[in-house]
Design brief:
By secondary structure, the chain is α/β, with parallel strands linked by helices. It has a single domain, classed as Rossmann fold (3-Layer(aba) Sandwich), CATH 3.40.50.2300. 42% of the residues lie in helices and 13% in strands. The protein has a four-stranded parallel β-sheet with strand order 2-1-3-4, with helices on both faces. The longest helix has 32 residues. The radius of gyration is 15 Å and the shape is globular. It starts with 5 loop residues before the first strand and ends with a helix. The model has no long low-confidence stretch (mean pLDDT 95).
């Protein structure tokens, strides 16, 4: 297939817990899927710029390590309009993120999805922020991210099939 890769962003508030964990999970899944590898670019960002340039929270990194996700996460990025407009698909953690992203986004072709809707379509549930929690809450958050990531790979395959037909 010779088309442009899909650009996918995962979004949370500060880009140090949920979205970088989701980024690592998705990069892991994409790298192991021959249909997705080299065709999907995964990044993450935050709706607030508090942690731009910062590494992921050590507790998030520890949760990933415990689960066997050894890929590195990227440094914190702010989800400004230019960043969002470069994405084909944006997956957000809460309804507030959904609102913030839609307010900033001017690219009508970019689809925005609430993460928990990958697992419970139409439920419109938020994925709780583990930042003020303990190890258990980080592990529970990661479990939801992992489950949703597996569902998202099906969405990505469908998107790539559509692009291949359009070429």
């Amino acid at each position: 297939m010779s088309y442009q890769p899909l650009h996918l962003a995962t979004i949370c508030t500060g880009n140090i817990c949920r979205s970088p964990m989701a980024e690592v999970v998705l990069k892991h899944l994409v790298a192991r899927d021959p249909l997705l590898k080299d065709h999907v670019n995964v990044t993450s960002a935050g709706t607030a710029n508090w942690h731009a340039g910062s590494p992921m929270d050590p507790r998030a990194r520890a949760a990933l390590d415990r689960a066997g996700y050894d890929l590195p996460g990227s440094l914190g990025v702010f989800a400004d309009p230019a960043y969002l407009d470069r994405q084909d698909l944006v997956v957000v953690m809460t309804r507030e993120h959904l609102h913030d992203v839609r307010e900033r986004l001017s690219n009508a072709a970019t689809e925005v999805i609430l993460w928990r809707n990958l697992l419970e379509p139409g439920a419109n549930l938020d994925l709780a922020d583990p930042y003020y929690g303990d190890t258990v809450e980080f592990d529970e958050c990661l479990a939801v991210l992992s489950s949703g990531g597996h569902r998202l790979t099906s969405v990505l395959r469908s998107r790539l099939d559509e692009r291949a037909r359009d070429v």
